[in-house]
Amino acid sequence: MTTTDSTPSPNFIRNIVAEDVRVNKNEGRVHTRFPPEPNGYLHIGHAKSICLNFGLAAEFKGLCNLRFDDTNPTKEEVEYVEAILSDLRWLGFDWGDRLFYTSDYFEQLCEYAVRLIKDGKAYVCSLSAEETREYRGTLTKPGKDSPYRTRSVEENLDLFQGMRSGEFEDGSHVLRAKIDMASPNLNMRDPTIYRIRKVAHHRTDDKWCIYPMYDFSHCLSDSIERITHSICTLEFEDNRPLYDWVLDELNLDCHPQQIEFARLNLSYTVLSKRKLLGLVEEGLVNGWEDPRMPTISGIRRRGYTPESIRNFCDRIGVAKRDSVVDMALLEHCVREDLNKRTPRVMGVLRPLRVVIDNYPEDQVEELEAINSPEDPGMGTRKVPFSRVLYVERDDFREDPPKKFFRLGPGREVRLRYAYYVTCVSVVKDEQTGEVIELHCTYDPETRGGWSEDGRKVRGTLHWVSASHSLEAEVRLYDRLFEKANPGGEKGRADFKTSLNPNSLETLTSCRIEPSLAGAAPGSRYQFERLGYFCVDSVDVSDERLVFNRTVTLRDSWAKIEKQQK
Ligand code: ATP
Ligand code: MG
Asked: Which of 246, 266, 286 represents a domain boundary (last residue)?
């Protein structure tokens, strides 16, 4: 089953929103937001949330805001803000003029905090971090009231003002909501809503030395922006009572509805900014944009299309139960898209020289090749054929096993779009015994790769003309992790121990057909029989092209899907 961008699949959140629209809740408005924290690059898990939030807004003729949730200056950077903006644009989403930052609301959030203090709903607590932990209790043991819980409104106002004006050191005081230390929900045991952090912020610089906590700032930012549906991942389910408490206590007229869904987990990779940052910082990958990374920028550099990612997000659906999606489905989605849109070309990854003994020395023929069997509109091109060619080293076996239908001594095969050729002798390196050259004869009656006499050959090989082809570097990728679940069952295993040491193979003396000269960074091709490749957009040189293999041609998804059923 394929679905297109314009017809999102139904899911429980869409049903809730549709019903709200039907009963004219929020005057029929739908207003969502995507709230990334700029502490890392976006990954494919974020794409699920992005497609959901922007998709709902589009479907119900509403709006979706982009809001940077920038309340933790120690971990956030402008580099991340810029990367997130460019990834979102590339994915094809538009927030119009609604780009916001939680830091835009710092003044207003502070006023809300003062209101809670005045209403006796918040107090300055001066317990140490360790004492606070002790007082909080556990899931089975109720917490204890902080001795500072009974401070007067005046004292709280005074201390909070002192926190704001920088009179106190980090960690000496926090502002806490006064809720219930015996609540079975730990989030409700007087959570911290403001803390001191004498750290400059990437937008507000050193204007602030107190910063609001997520649970306080998020619901209020949603309300300030008049969001209707605040969609987040399941781990926030237990924070929902606090989300509602803050908005109710402040008696705000706009009270968005928080709805949780299961985050995307993908096999053979990790989807956590913290873990991905670890890989980057320890140099275990070549930055956030490494094509092996599950980041949007890595996947983009690898050659994925935005359409294939959106289609993937639609197919995985939105549910309330955690699950792990097979990487094979993501690969299936990109193959399906690239199959339709990419031109076919010939390139040889590990070249083996072939001399066609009976082909005239200086003759060159321009043979016609079809650009795409999927799309005749893509036309044809000419590929040069000459006496010396390269074929794939793997396509020759001196002692061919059963079912090996490619070249071997005395065997005849078809060279795609060219001729039937027969291997007549083999040249070996005297020292190593390695095959370094093949001698073949060609049948001039088989031009174009077809025999008039109906003679059949089992194998069709790709090839390039030695003197006409261009040198290229090709990077082949395998899974970043050897284990399907690198984090272990509970996500507690050291995920780095299951890194795949062979996830990158760089081939530096590949040969590609001359039509690829000047191929633009980011352009995508199917190399016949080898997979889909994309010209690298980071390592760009005039000397030679660098290609990333996006994905091989072999699709394992149908089989996996069958097994799952
Ligand atoms: P991470 O766990 O990778 O650090 P995060 O949740 O801390 O992610 P945010 O920048 O806060 O990252 O996420 C922005 C939005 O994207 C949030 O609404 C979050 O719920 C959502 N999101 C993050 N990871 C996933 C995921 N794997 N699947 C679906 N949505 C996700
Ligand atoms: Mg987060």
From this structure: 266
Total structural domains within the chain: 3
283 and 355 share one domain: no
In a domain, 142, yes or no: yes
**Average pLDDT taken over every residue of the chain:** 95
Catalytic residues: 37, 263, 273
> Is residue 260 domain-shared with residue 292, that is, in the same domain?
no
CB atoms within 10 A of CB 107: 11
Same domain? For 476 and 452 the reply is no
Q: Of the candidates 461, 377, 477, 380, which has an alpha carbon nearest to the alpha carbon of residue 420? A: 461
Atom of ligand 1 nearest to the CA of 42: 10
Query: Do 465 and 476 belong together in one domain?
Result: no
SS3 191: coil
Q: Which atom of ligand 1 lies at the shortest distance from residue 35's CA? A: 14
Ligand 1 centroid from CA 53, angstroms: 13
pLDDT for 4 equals 44
CATH of the domain at 179: 3.40.50.620
Domain end among 266, 295, 311: 266
Count of C-beta atoms within a 10 Å radius of residue 420: 22
Q: Is 55 in the pocket of ligand 1 (CB under 6 A)?
A: no
Pairwise CA distance, residues 47 & 53, whole Å: 10
Is the pLDDT at 487 greater than 90? The verdict is no
pLDDT in tens, 352-402: 999 999 999 999 999 999 999 999 999 999 999 999 999 999 999 999 999
Main-chain phi, psi angles of 365, to 5 degrees: -115, 140
23 and 106 fall within a common domain? yes
Q: Identify the domain containing residue 313 by its residue range.
A: 273-343+472-564
Q: What is the DSSP letter of 427?
A: E
CA 532 to mean position of chain CA atoms: 18
pLDDT digits (tens, 9 = 90+) for 246-282: 999 999 999 999 999 999 999 999 999 999 999 999 9
Q: In this structure, which residues have their CB less than 5 angstroms from ion ligand 2?
A: 37
Q: What is the pLDDT of residues 159-204, one digit of tens each?
A: 999 999 999 999 999 999 999 999 999 999 999 999 999 999 999 9
pTM of the model: 0.94
Kindly state whether residues 77 and 189 are assigned to the same domain.
Answer: yes
Cα separation of 342 and 522, whole Å?
12
The CB of 35 under 6 Å from ligand 1? The reply is yes
Residues 80, 221: one domain?
Answer: yes
18 & 123 share domain: yes
Q: How confident is the model at residue 2 (pLDDT cuts 50, 70, 90)?
A: very low
